[in-house]
Amino acid sequence: MTRVGLLLRKDLRVLQRSPLLVALLVVYPLLVAALVGLVAGYGSSKPRVALVDEDNLPAVAQVGGRTFRIADAIDEVGKNVHLVRMPADEAARQLRAGRVVATLTIPPGFLAELRSGLTSPSLVYETTRGGISTRVTQQVQALVYSLNRRLQSAFVRADLRYVRLILHGGTATFAGRRYDVLGLDRMHALLKRLPPSPARDKVADFARVAGIALGQTGNLLSSTASPIGLRRAGVKSRSSLLSAQVQAYALALTITFLALLLAASAIAAERDENTVGRLARGLVSLGEIVWAKVLLAAFVSLALGLAIALVFGVIVEAGNVIGGEPWQRLPLLAVGVVLAGAALGALGALLGALARETRTASLVAVLVVMPIVFLGLVPKEVAPLAGWISEALPFTHAVRYFASSLYDADPWATVGRELAWLAALGAVFGLGARWATRRLLD
Amino acid sequence: MTGVVLRARGVARRFGSQVALEPTDVELRSGEVLALIGPNGAGKSTLLSILAGALAPSDGAVERPEGGRVGWVPQRPALYERLTARENLELFARLERVPDAATAAEDLLASFDVPADRVAGTLSVGNRQRLNVAIALLGAPPVLLLDEPTASLDPGQRRRLWETVRDGTVVFSTQNLEEIGLYATRVAVLQRGRLVFDGSVEEYERVHAEEVFR
């Protein structure tokens, strides 16, 4: 067996004798992944938005001849954002303090303007910059879209009453005055009583064509108000908990935590146990010591990564989840797990060599894991700097590799690119670790 | 290196701005037992680590026996605490390329009377130190470097240790002046990182030991 192999076997034997540590290393990141998922889910579902009602909207309002319950509309919004009623000055104060992420103001005269149907009233929306403001803006836009959809049908119905009046005639009230409208039908009947003439026939023909055209007005008004509709199809899909992204994140988070901590503490332990000097006197080179720790991280990552994939797969199969588990992709996943584990192991070895003591190395590794993971979770479009930093860390590339290798129809381009990233980052961190390992001898 | 089995030429070591060892020349001939003495912080462990190859010198070079390594017993035991005594010996024997690692480990366990299958971290201080010495003897190195090897041993254990190693070529550091008269053939004295004396035991005895440790 090679010298690296002997050291690797030793480290695995030491690890085997610490079952509690191994259990913690497995359970802790999975727990963190679940908590992150819960917090993210909570955060995404209920941002706090102030509602300032300067028009004193009644509980029930009549618009376009249709009754609207204001509370229902607010409940509808409450599915996505937590709307809190408050005065304007309090809303402004809370927005400045960051207690609410946005304010939505109903200006004075809003309902009267809406009822008039002559002009479109506006809701006034203010939000903080950055963070989740983009998402909140989308949710407020969705609220306005939803209100417009409800109002649109009331307005169309009101418009159609006028169209029917023109078609069939009758009495109507407009701007407070009562009118008796002849209507095209009655006009047609009156025309028939007139003596025949080309002029009468032309007017009668116009009345007929106008009647046909106005008969189509209902559909035209509806399609003009909503050229494209959105209908939610009732197709059964996989739970978000078992989605490709969650599997990829859970795998990457666990491996990041495990590989960093293991490699960092294993290399620092060589100094704590005073063995690095014994090894370095010609038995094993410093580079071989780093290699042994990198391989330790890769080996344990592989074992754990496959176990996690297996557990996910069993749950997916047992639940008869749509899409199933892509078992044939496990070898491809395994390649990525090994390389991600090695790259993260190299980073861990670098941290461990810099920290020099096992306790410090473990603490540093734990402290470093969280920023690495959270940087990888922040979308680049929200925080470009975070995106750039996370590109230089293995976590992001591991997530992309895992998701692509498991679920992309044609994963090769992504897989190849991310493998190259992981290999390059592993080489850089490995060289850094080799350089830093000299500190262990001081 | 006729007769000389270990030679250091101008070896020095700095840790940042601190000088731990000034340029030092040391030669060791076959069969010699060199006692390295001096007060705490004089540079004894630094010199021994450099001679062993466990620490790179900032300046100078060390010539070691051709093709062979020196055995090194650091002051603080260098062993894996979660491995048993046997596993430690077998691992280092394989790394030393000892032909039959298991037999070599078994022989040393018997010679040093160390509990074979107890995890090293649970051994007594004396047993850990004996295991530390046993690991250094793997592969029968032509030169043995011992850094205060008997500091944590009782008188019986000290005697047994010296019975095992005294027939070879040895450099040992000690604070126990009695050991110089009993085992050393030559004495080197370090003070504040500088070699201030290198001569026979008789020459050394003409200098008052208290002067050395002052």
Query: What is the CATH architecture descriptor of one domain in chain B?
Result: 3-Layer(aba) Sandwich
Portion of residues within helices of chain B: 25-40%
Provide the succession of SSEs of chain B: EEEHEEHHHEHEHEEHH
CATH topology name of one domain in chain B: Rossmann fold
Q: Rg of chain B to the nearest angstrom? A: 17 Å
- Roughly what percent helix of chain A? 55-70%
**Overall strand count of chain A:** 8
The SSE string of chain A, one letter per element, is: HHEEEHEHEHEHEEHHHHHHHHHHH
Question: How many strand segments of chain B?
Answer: 9
What does this entry look like structurally?
The complex is a heterodimer of chains A (442) and B (214). Chain A is 68% helix and 8% strand. With 442 residues, chain A is of the alpha/beta class. Chain A has two domains: 3-41 and 243-441, no CATH class; 46-163, 3-Layer(aba) Sandwich (abc type-2 transporter like fold), CATH 3.40.1710.10. Chain A has a four-stranded mixed sheet, with helices on both faces. In chain A, β7 and β8 form a beta hairpin. By secondary structure, chain B is an alpha/beta fold. Chain B has a domain at 1-70 and 172-214: P-loop containing nucleotide triphosphate hydrolases (Rossmann fold), CATH 3.40.50.300. Chain B has eight helices and nine strands. Chain B has a six-stranded mixed sheet with strand order 5-6-7-3-8-9, with helices on both faces. At the A-B interface, α1 and α11 of A face α2 of B.
